[in-house]
Amino acid sequence: MTTATLEKTPAPEGEARQTPPLDLEPSSKFASWLAGLETSLCLTTYQSGKIFMVGTADGERLSVFERTLNRCMGLAVADRSVYVSTLWQLWRLENVMPAGQSKDGYDGIYVPQTGSVTGDLDIHDMAVDDDGRLIFVNTLFSCLATTSETHSFRPLWKPDFISSLAPEDRCHLNGLAMRDGKAAYVTVVSKTDTAGGWREHRRRGGCVIDVKTNEIVAHGLSMPHSPRWYDDRLWLHNSGSGEFGYIDFETGRFEPLVCCPGYLRGLTFCGGYAVMGLSKPRGSKAFEGLVLEDTLKKAGVSAQCGLLVVDLNTGETVHSLKIDGVVEELYDVAALPGVSRPMAVGLQSDDIRRVISIEE
């Protein structure tokens, strides 16, 4: 039996260092599970402004590489590219390491190649469609959008109950699910058309909307997040109740698979497993009065932060990565298939001057 030991890469000189210290505790076989799949994970931490790349070294030890990005949230992976949203920018990082090669043990070296200035749109989920176009959830303006060469964004779609585009976060549109390379479903916290109106309907006002038809396919949810189409099902988090499950389209009901000890955000799939982000509810009114709060109190447990790996066939949590310290909230998680040990080049270190690649 091999044991997983944590190898954490510190931030290079010139980049912000976290206080209090960061502690990552993987379950005993988390690293070997990742190594067996020949994949790694990327996750964003929202409030603490960290992007982590989690992989394995030597097939046994967990390798965690971090960079600091101001309020990084949404992630999208397409081929060798990783897209990440920050406070007022969108970045595309490209893996410049040729397949089958490595440098200093890293077989994925992600370099910032393009950045788009969007302003603070409170960008949540992101995805790349079958035309190679980046689509992002513009939460502030309650719409789906893409980048523009001349403006902050170009709107693509909005719910039909939103009367006009305005920087008012009217329904807290947050989640995006793609199907067959197209934007297919979104999640909103409520069907409201007033500035911040969703805040009054956090407990059971959540909806899933079909982008093509504008039909509401599920309602009565509590702060739903991270819808994803996988294996012919629409999976998502019913975050306000701490539940992960799927939508039964015949009944329009949310069918929970597992209840988790924390606020769920971020979802990706590796094989027959769901990898989901778990957060500690922040101390604000947006998280008060939710079913999750009551559930944790009755169980006598505290909310946790980290990653959970759930078997989709049984609903059993088979692996985990517990995170303590400066990081208390995750937003998104994405898989990097075919990359075992990734790292990212920072914008403030000398590496950005010296990592040069030639397109063939």
Structural summary, described in words:
By secondary structure, the chain is mainly beta. It has one domain: 6 Propeller (Neuraminidase). The protein contains 3 helices and 27 strands. The chain has a 5-stranded mixed beta sheet. Strands 2-25-24-23-22 form a 5-stranded antiparallel beta sheet, covered by helices on one side. Strands 6-7-8-9-27 form a 5-stranded mixed beta sheet, with no helix packed on it. β19 and β20 form a beta hairpin. The N and C termini lie far apart (43 Å). The model is unreliable at 1-18 (pLDDT under 50).
Q: Brief overview, please?
A:
The protein is mainly beta and 360 residues long. It is built from 3 helices and 27 strands.
Number of distinct helices: 3
Q: What's the number of extended β-strand segments?
A: 27
Query: What is the number of independent domains?
Result: 1
Oligomeric state of the chains in view:
single chain
Superfamily (CATH H level) name? TolB, C-terminal domain
In sequence order, what are the helices and strands, one letter per element?
EEHEEEEEEEEEEEEEEEEEEEEEHEEEEH
Rg value: 19 Å
Largest sheet: 5 strands, mixed
**Cα distance spanning the termini:** 43 Å
Low-confidence runs: 1-18
Mean pLDDT score, rounded? 92
Classified by CATH, the class is Mainly Beta
Helix content: under 10%
Give the CATH topology: Neuraminidase
